[in-house]
Structures are given as structure tokens and as C-alpha cells.
Amino acid sequence: MTECTFRADQRRLSVLKELRNNGVVKNVREMAEGHEAVDATARVTSSRERVARSILDHGPSSAADLAERLGLTQAAVRRHLDALTAAGLVTSREQKVYGHRGRGRPARVFLLTDSGRSTFYQAYDQLAADALGFLAEAAGGGEKGKEALAAFARARLARDAERYRSTLGDCGDAEAKAQALAGALTEDGYAATVRSAPLGEQLCQHHCPVAHIAEQFPQFCEAETELFSQLLGTHVQRLATIAHGDGVCTTFVPRAAPPPHTETTTTNDATAAPGRNPA
Question: b/e per residue, 232-248, with b = 16+ CB within 10 A?
Fold first, then answer.
């Protein structure tokens, strides 16, 4: 190998190493940029949550009030408020002025909507569970308490029963009724669907707004099953419930059995004698 060839090979190796190093640097840079983007999103989300939390803690607040409390610029606060408003979590109104009102338009204050409040912890489930437990004890506990809970569950569902009946209307077979009932349940937040099964249909509820309560008080599931049977005009069977840890509340709706098939034979009166089987 000549000296010139040796030096050329060294230059090629040097270039290859540089290219490899550039690839590493490029990958590291891309990873860093990705982490920076994630961190930036996290910071925005955190700041937005702080804005919402400040409104929750201090009540209706102006952008200036929020900026001062949180140590942010008013421009940044307004961006967060715009996003929260677009999401339906915050609304605004003119600030109430007591006494003499100066010149200019009154400042706008921002307050949480019901949806905005629901994003923070609320003890509604526990309050309902405590109330139902008190109802059962007040009725005498034991079987009497269970009967009182069942009566309450039926009465609660009775408010929706007539509306469901009108939705089912003149639906003919079990499948059409189940489809109509699924649509009505979906409107009430149950995300219901129907799928075919051997010998019938399965009414599936993918969400249960009272799952935490039904977990403690199965009378709610039982009352709902009774209502489905009444609405669909047939015996139904509950196969699974979210309250018991299943992924979906599933109710089996049997398909109506077809009428028995009867064969009729046309005979000629002139050739068929009474009591004889014609040949």
C-alpha cells in the first residue's frame, strides 16, 4: 500500500466517522426537541389548570386578578381563558359594580361552568351513597331496607319509563325495540348498542352514570332489568354489569319463537270419505 493510498483511506474513515457522529447528533437533537415539545405542552396544561383552580378558589376573577395571583402576564392568562372558554369549562360576564359606576365598560370576570367544576373532585357519589344507606336504615334495615331501596330505584326509573315507551312506539320485533331502546339510553349517557347473538339480541351499555352507586346497591341494576323487560315485552336476562367489574352492562333479549309450522292438505270432497285418509 502506498503512502497516498493510506492517507486517502484515512480521510475516508475520518469522513465516515464524522457522518456517523452527525447522525448521532441529529438523533439526539430530535429527541431533545421532542422532550422540549412535551415539556412545553405540560407547562401549558399546568398553567391552564392553575388558572381554573384559581377561579375555583377565589370565585369570579378578571384577567388582571388572575395574572397577579399566578405571576403570569395578562396576555398568557387570556390565552388560557380563551382555551378554557372554548372547551366549555369557563364562561364570562360583566363584573358587578356596587355604588357609583365610572366611565368605560365594566371589566369582565371569568367563572367556572358546571362542566368546569365537575373536572375537580366532588363527593356527589359519596353523598348519594350516604343518603341511600340512611334510607335503608330508616326503613328498618335488613329486608325492609332492601325493599325501600328497590322502591326508590323503581321510582327513579319511572320518570324515564314513559319517555322510553314513546320512543319504542310501534316497533314490531324484539330487535327493533332493542335498537330503539339503545338510542334512548344513549341520549341519557349510557352509550348503548345492540348486537346480534344466538337466539336473540344483546343490549350493551358501555357506560353507566351510576356505576359507583349500583356497586353498593344492586337494587338499581335489578330495577333497570325489570324496566327493560316491561318495555321490550319479554323476559330479559342480565349477563354482565359495570358495577360488578365487567367492561359492559349486557342484557340478553331473546328473539320471539316462530309460530309452529302446520301442514294443510287439500282434499277432494268427491273422493275423500269421512274418516278416511285419501290415497
Answer: bebebebebbbbeeeeb
